Amino acid sequence: MKKLLPAVALLATLTPGLRAQTTPPPAWTDHARALPDKLRQVPVGLTLWHTPNPIYPEPNPAQPGGYVWKHSTMLRSEVGELEVVECGSFIWYSEAGWQANMRETPTEFAELFQCPGGRLLPGRTYTFAKNYRYADNAQRLYGGDALWYILAKDKAGKLYKGMGLVETEATVR
Q1: Per-residue pLDDT averaged across 136-163, rounded?
Q2: What does UniProt give as the signal peptide span (predicted)?
């Protein structure tokens, strides 16, 4: 028991540090501004949109009792050939505001949007056809807004963004 107490004490002192390392930094620190920090002061060079928008849950035939929100996300470069750096979204479902939601690598983006090598050609539209959200049951239906974003750079290394808001509703129609 005497040997166990120092080990427990040591573990207790390490735990807060470990917890602090796993807590992600806030995505939206300046509440006087509308955008999450990552998207501020980056020029717009991409058009991103969702359809339909808003989206409503519907029964999921693949999972009895479950629900699915179905929409597609489209993207187009407006400034020339670009290389995707990052793809992701922020969600707003409470008074806390924007929260980091998901982040995709360039390889994941290329697969989801059918965009070989993550290279965006000017004027061409790339589509994530089945950008679906799922709920296991009716108790998990909640509304909120998702701000999807793409960050991409040109050959000179200049970074551009594209972003599009999708309204996700909780009411089954």
Answers
A1: 97
A2: 1-20
